[in-house]
Write a structure and sequence with these properties.
The protein is of the alpha+beta class. Among the domains are: 86 residues, 434 Repressor (Amino-terminal Domain); 79 residues, no CATH class. Helix content is 45%, strand content 15%. The strands form 2 sheets. Strands 4-1-6-7 form a 4-stranded antiparallel sheet, with no helix packed on it. A 4-stranded antiparallel sheet has the order 3-2-5-8, with no helix packed on it. Helix 1 runs antiparallel to helix 5. The longest helix has 51 residues. The protein starts with a helix and ends with a strand.
Amino acid sequence: MSAELVHEELKTFVSDLKAAREAKGLSLKNVHEKTRISVTILDALEKGEFHLLPPDVYTRNFIRNYAEFLEVDSKPILDSFKDEKEYAAPPVLQKETMETLPSSERHHWKHLVLGVSVFFFIGVLVWLLVSYADKSILLKSSGSGERERTASSGEAPVGANSGIKDVATLPSSTKPLPETTNTFPPQAAEPDHPQASSSHEAAGPYTLIIEAKEKTWLRIRTDDEEATERTMKPGERLDLSARERFTLDIGNAAGVRVLFQDRLLENLGEEGQVVHLSLP
């Protein structure tokens, strides 16, 4: 079967999903509310616009979940999708290595790389030495100035007779902090609705950390902002904050570590499983 026939067959299969949805009287928004698959992905699936979809492993999960929701057999669609990707796979390009270059050019590049590395190392070393010297001079000058002020005033150095060493002293220009008084009325100490008060204090901001262990597709929505989609690679990390809530679609539940308010969320799901989270 040619690539054109495979592509047309796949478009026919995914159009059957649209027909099944319309037969049930459902809109794309209705399906999103039930499956948590974004409307953008559902629309691209039904139109066969696979270049707009995330990586293959996540797209297969979306096809399977959507077909099961509509009570349609997903196997023919997944098989056709697999054939489509095999036909569309780009040819393997021959790798060009340094060995294809003439010997004289290889030596030239090696010497250039070595020279740049040496200059970089020397620059870092000089910067560290200068920073250390400046810090030492600053500490010495501040210490000698303090001793001169103590000697001129005729006072014994702090800690000289008390047996306490290395006591930090405030400069003479430092002013004491002003005293504060409680300006709240007495009745504010005991609120009429303690439960409402505690829940207000417990509200945001919230922090969320996502660390990728495997290649994983994510769809993230913070508060009422527009959702964003991305694919994380192993070792990548996201640090997020929100005033009210996070909404997450994770394409590979076993591929990420999720920490909400510095607390690890365990057992999100299996490898390749799509999960949906709403925090808190």
